[in-house]
């Protein structure tokens, strides 16, 4: 299906290249507008009509030639952070060229514009600052928030808002106002992989201060130099922002990104029934992991409810994964929530989460706490905590999921113990970046005699099976699903992003697993196919929204595929006609 979808989308791209746009910008104004600028690709007729003949060198370049020139310029940058800076500059000049360069070198450049390089750019945001990007909403300016918000969206049709308070950025923690970088990067990926028009996206940073002392002491820090606002004041600030989105952009998707563990799940719970909201750290991570597990159990010919799950790391990601798997089990296997909860064993820094831990247990994980009566005879460490190996010995898990950032946490002894009691152990060390992975997949493959079904959160080279065949390690990357989930909700004008819509997208991703045709192949499609994969996810989500009555459109399900293709934005140059009443 992925190959067929890629051909289908290629036709859509060609159609967009023939689209005619009436534009009223002329001269230097159009050359400095990244949405309409073509640079040397303006045709002789366009140059004449838009007053550009003397502003550009004589020769007309093709987009192919521009991409080659830009890529050559990129290659001479000798570090990832300098490449990131170059691409940021290119985005500010010419959207089509920027996104087309990224599209042609997707696997190579995603780590440059997103994790891990974007983390360095965000950490140094105040020192690298050149120009603003998006909307900065700052706590001391709360009284003018609506005025500032309306100024930013004036005359715009905004489909997507990505916002962050920057408390938990990409594994590097609190980055204050630099959080605008993660909001901007996420918006870019929605465009690059799902096809959301970049002119209809709005990155936002909610600057409520920072507890990063390095930033507070930095004289060049460009954010609000104040410790983080907490409690009632924080809630009022966030709520005012959300209510503005609901009031002025009622059909938009509001994407929460990199909020801290005390707020991420809480805010999602508060607003998920009020507006179409999405938290990638919770729902995106949960959805792509669910798709991976569904592909794996497709290989083992079993069901979600047949598994015994150990989740190593119970933060936002771990709890999001657990909740998503649990909810899918309830929906697909038709079992009660309490029964589904009993399939899970969560481990955090205090070992197995069991009821006697008391106030060491966060409220949002209480429902997964194990009864102490189950563990009276379990091995404990010197502090009395039940650690991973002891849990594996007692539970005999079929699935082991890591989202702890504890490098090497899945020891050889633990992996071998799991493999003793499981024909095809499903092992998913998902922590990012790769240096923090719980186990190197080639080691897990070796320790299980090639029996393990593996996926990781970062890219890894293939492992060698005992038969000499390469085993491709699937990259359990959120970008394989969240852009499609979001675009499906946007395109269908869904009133909220329901659990069943997420599950529909997840099932579609799982159905594209190469392992379903060859059990020794990857559990997920190649990341290079992410645009085609997310197209399928978006179609599935929109179809489900229509079927369940969540959609705000009156389409029939059989119309959805064509509607999604029609609405996608593509990095191609259309034809411009000068019109004083046209677009700007």
TrEMBL record:
Q: Where does a divalent metal cation bind?
A: 257-258, 281
Q: How does the cofactor attach, per the note?
A: Divalent metal cations. Prefers magnesium or manganese.
**Cofactor(s) in the UniProt record:** Mn(2+); Mg(2+)
Q: Name one Pfam family in it.
A: Malic_M
Name the GO cellular-component terms. cytosol; mitochondrion
The UniProt entry, under SUPFAM superfamilies, shows: Aminoacid dehydrogenase-like, N-terminal domain, NAD(P)-binding Rossmann-fold domains
Looking at the record, the residues that make up the Malic enzyme NAD-binding domain are 282-546
Q: What is this protein called?
A: Malic enzyme
Task: Look up and give the organism this protein is from.
Answer: Jaapia argillacea MUCL 33604
């Amino acid at each position: 299906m992925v190959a067929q979808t890629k051909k289908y989308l290629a036709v859509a791209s060609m159609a967009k290249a023939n689209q005619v746009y009436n534009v009223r910008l002329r001269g230097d104004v159009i050359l400095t507008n990244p949405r309409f600028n073509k640079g040397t690709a303006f045709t002789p007729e366009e140059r004449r009509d838009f007053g550009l003949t003397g502003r550009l060198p004589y020769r007309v370049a093709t987009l192919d030639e521009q991409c080659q020139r830009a890529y050559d310029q990129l290659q001479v940058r000798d570090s990832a952070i300098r490449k990131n800076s170059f691409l940021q500059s290119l985005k500010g000049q010419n959207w089509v060229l920027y996104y087309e360069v990224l599209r042609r070198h997707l696997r190579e450049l995603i780590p440059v514009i997103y994790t891990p390089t974007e983390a360095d750019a965000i950490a140094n945001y105040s020192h690298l600052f050149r120009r603003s990007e998006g909307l900065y909403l700052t706590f001391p300016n709360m009284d003018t928030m609506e005025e500032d918000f309306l100024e930013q969206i004036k005359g715009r049709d905004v489909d997507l808002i990505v916002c962050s308070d920057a408390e938990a950025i990409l594994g590097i923690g609190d980055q204050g106002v630099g959080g605008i970088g993660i909001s901007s990067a996420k918006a870019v990926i929605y465009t690059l992989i799902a096809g959301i028009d970049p002119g209809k996206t709005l990155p936002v940073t909610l600057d409520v201060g920072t507890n990063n002392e390095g930033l507070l002491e930095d004289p060049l820090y460009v954010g609000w130099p104040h410790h983080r606002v907490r409690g009632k004041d924080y809630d009022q600030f966030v709520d005012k922002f959300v209510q503005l989105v609901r009031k002025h952009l009622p059909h938009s998707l509001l994407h929460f990104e990199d909020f801290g563990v005390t707020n991420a799940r809480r805010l999602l719970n508060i607003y998920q029934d009020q507006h179409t909201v999405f938290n990638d750290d919770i729902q995106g991570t949960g959805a792509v992991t669910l798709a991976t597990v569904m592909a794996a159990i497709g290989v083992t010919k079993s069901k979600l409810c047949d598994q015994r799950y150990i989740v190593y790391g119970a933060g936002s990601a771990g709890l999001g994964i657990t909740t998503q798997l649990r909810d899918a089990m309830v929906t697909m296997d038709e079992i009660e929530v309490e029964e589904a909860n009993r399939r899970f064993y969560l481990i955090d820094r205090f070992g197995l989460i069991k009821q006697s831990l008391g106030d060491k247990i966060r409220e949002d994980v209480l429902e997964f706490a194990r009864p102490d009566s189950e563990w009276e005879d379990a091995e404990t460490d010197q502090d009395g905590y039940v650690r991973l190996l002891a849990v594996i010995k007692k539970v005999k898990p079929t699935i082991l999921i890591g989202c702890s950032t504890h490098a090497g946490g899945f020891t050889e002894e633990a992996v071998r113990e799991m493999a003793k009691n499981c024909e095809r152990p499903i092992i998913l060390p998902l922590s990012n970046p790769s240096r923090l992975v719980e186990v190197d997949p080639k080691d897990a493959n070796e320790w299980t005699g090639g029996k393990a079904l593996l996926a990781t959160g970062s890219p890894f080279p293939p492992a060698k099976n005992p038969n000499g065949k390469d085993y491709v390690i699937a990259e359990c990357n959120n970008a394989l699903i969240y852009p499609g989930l979001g675009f499906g909700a946007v395109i269908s004008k869904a009133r909220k992003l329901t659990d069943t819509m997420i599950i529909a997208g997840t099932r579609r991703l799982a159905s594209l697993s190469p392992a379903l045709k060859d059990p020794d192949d990857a559990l997920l499609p190649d990341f290079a196919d992410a645009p085609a994969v997310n197209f399928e996810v978006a179609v599935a989500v929109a179809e489900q929204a229509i079927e369940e009555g969540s959609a705000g459109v009156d389409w029939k399900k059989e119309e959805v595929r064509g509607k999604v293709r029609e609405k996608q934005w593509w990095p191609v140059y259309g034809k411009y006609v000068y019109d004083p009443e046209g677009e700007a």
